[in-house]
Design goal:
The chain has 255 residues and is an alpha/beta fold. The chain is built from 11 helices and 7 strands. It has a single domain, classed as Rossmann fold. Bound molecules: D-malate.
Length: 255
Amino acid sequence: MAYDVAGDGPAVVLLHGYPFNRSMWREQVKALSADYKVVAPDLRGHGETEATKNATMYEMARDVAALLDKLNIERASFCGLSMGGYVTFSFYSLFSSRVQSLILADTRPQSDAEETRRVRHEQAQKISEEGMKAVAESLLQKVLTPETLRERPEIVSRVREMIQGTKPEGAVAALRGMAERKDHSYLLERILAPSLVIVGSHDQITPPEVAEKMRRDIPGSRLEIIENAGHLSNIENPNQFNNAVKKFLDAQRWR
Ligand code: MLT
């Protein structure tokens, strides 16, 4: 498993979305590593981590647990964005005692609706036949705001490169893994770890209503809406994202 570790202090694990990689956390690693040990892996089949035929959210969660064992980290805070959030829910359901706190960004606890599952299988087929290029432009339209698409070409190129750099077999396995993922809605009311829910104000994939419901269902959790951001709220508005995360982590540290 490829990963970056930076800084020292309480551990914070950053789990990226699909079909991206650990480089999406660049601004967060920089901001958090002054006070925390930040661990950012490439999940199975993404970035520089090998692809396998199957990649369930549970397998990805077990990969993360094995990485933490290797790094001698018993307990950490987790920040998962979108698919990284699905992996975070799986990790919590398997290893809750290893979770200090949760940051659930642009994600949802529910499993896929039938129609979403059908579209995932279609996408998987398309990627197997034509590669990542075939889905890159439509994905960009979904994950970034119209303003970013129009006015911030450096972000558009960065996200396009991540998508096109993902191994087709890794993307296909992740799509199938997401399609068959378990519904973790039941878990929310049982979450004891301090939790922060984050969502981009213009997120089309996991809209603010989904985040608001998570905030209501997780006892004591807080919601931060990231302005001028879509699904990739950490990239589109890193300042607000980082400030919210730092404030949340710092509050637990000094409690
Ligand atoms: C992601 O960003 O990880 C994806 O949008 C997740 C999904 O397709 O459900």
